[in-house]
């Protein structure tokens, strides 16, 4: 099935199914009450209670001159009044006069010990009807992180398609990135000398193939069985209960004993196995079409399906092959998009997660421990978090369980047993998701960190492809269009002032977005090309001027006709929906 057809099919599903009546779902620990159609539509666009609403203020005005109510002709006229002798400043997609994004302070409320160890929101599915209830999406969007238990059984997903045996049979020579790590207890992280607890997570990268990693995974399992037999051990190494408090208390064993154990063993974690090629992985990707639309890799209601090109691991599936102790260090997802993770089994995984509102506190602790929040590899010391009043969800993901990681949630994961996992990102069409994505997009610029989601390119595609009835989301996207169109017009005027010709180059339908070869910011529409080491490298205006203040020796290309961008900008208006009526 083509991506375009999948999007159309998803859109048809959303239209037909989103407002169906609630089905009986067993929620734990919270039962979701039945809501009307209007309430469903409203709640899907509300911000979560646990984070500050950074998009609540009206952003209708950009400056006394520029505002989103302007049409493109008015915008062009206003740009002509700007000084063209000076280059336009770096484009921001945020409202002008908005201060640069910074890590937020943690919420001031003092939490009790119990509140620092909150129970993990979870829901148990009993059948396919449960999985396709709109209330499931509602539940996931309401919490920082959620576990959907029994998903594979309810949807009759064939998890065997993602087993190591099947992977080897399908594509034995497929590449696997390997991370060599120290085996440690999930709630601890020791330095290389095993002398003290630290945040820095040791992880060395190499590469192998699926077949070779499968041999390692199998031999690791056999070695473990032999060790347990020699020592007379029976039973499970660790509990498999999903309750977060039990998970904490059951791991409360001697530090000295765990320290000694962790110092004796290294492990290899097979990560980032690319399953994007439909020719190689058709059975696997087809099986995932059984998922409800909000959790699918491709869906009309998924922002990342509108990027128009592949972003590996985000709008494509990646697989992880694990032995006990394999760690995914602490992080937020790229550009704060939501993520889906399904445990294939046969072993369990243990998760730790912190609500988005507290990410600034974790950032502070990373700095305190001399680790880069974005560039570094870190594993939080739990007691450090508790001392800073930062709550931590902790739970077990069993085979067939889906973990929904909401926008901005900080998380880190360790495998308990031998297992494989599959994962990808999704972008719900909500103001909260879009707001967090563009805020991280701007903060990444300040941190010299590449945003692998091209938010400007994505925003223009959203304006082309969808009708937005949510006023807050509309204003955020329209502001991005205004800011970028203003920057394009100003840049063109400046380049002409410099006496440089702008050549129309066009853009292929599925061409990847462009990034500056120097600073790695997204470059949209107006590209500055400089030959370097026999390669033609794209630059942003700022870096191009550093190479050549007169822009001599630099080719300026345009990807879209100005008339096309003007049409998209003018056509993107707030969609007025007819009132929805529910028959009781």
UniProtKB/TrEMBL annotation:
Which cofactor names does the annotation list?
Fe(2+)
Pfam families reported for this sequence: JmjC, KDM6_C-hel, KDM6_GATAL
Q: Which UniProt keywords apply?
A: Chromatin regulator, Dioxygenase, Iron, Metal-binding, Nucleus, Oxidoreductase, Phosphoprotein, Zinc
Q: Which Gene3D superfamilies match?
A: 1.20.58.1370, 2.10.110.20, Cupin (2.60.120.650)
Biological process per Gene Ontology, one example term: regulation of gene expression
Where this protein primarily resides, as one coarse class? nucleus
InterPro entries found in the cross-reference section: Corepressor-Demethylase, JmjC_dom, KDM6_GATAL_sf, KDM6A_B-like_C-hel, KDM6A_B-like_GATAL
This chain belongs to which protein, by name? Answer: Lysine-specific demethylase 6A isoform X4
Source organism (scientific name): Drosophila pseudoobscura pseudoobscura (Fruit fly)
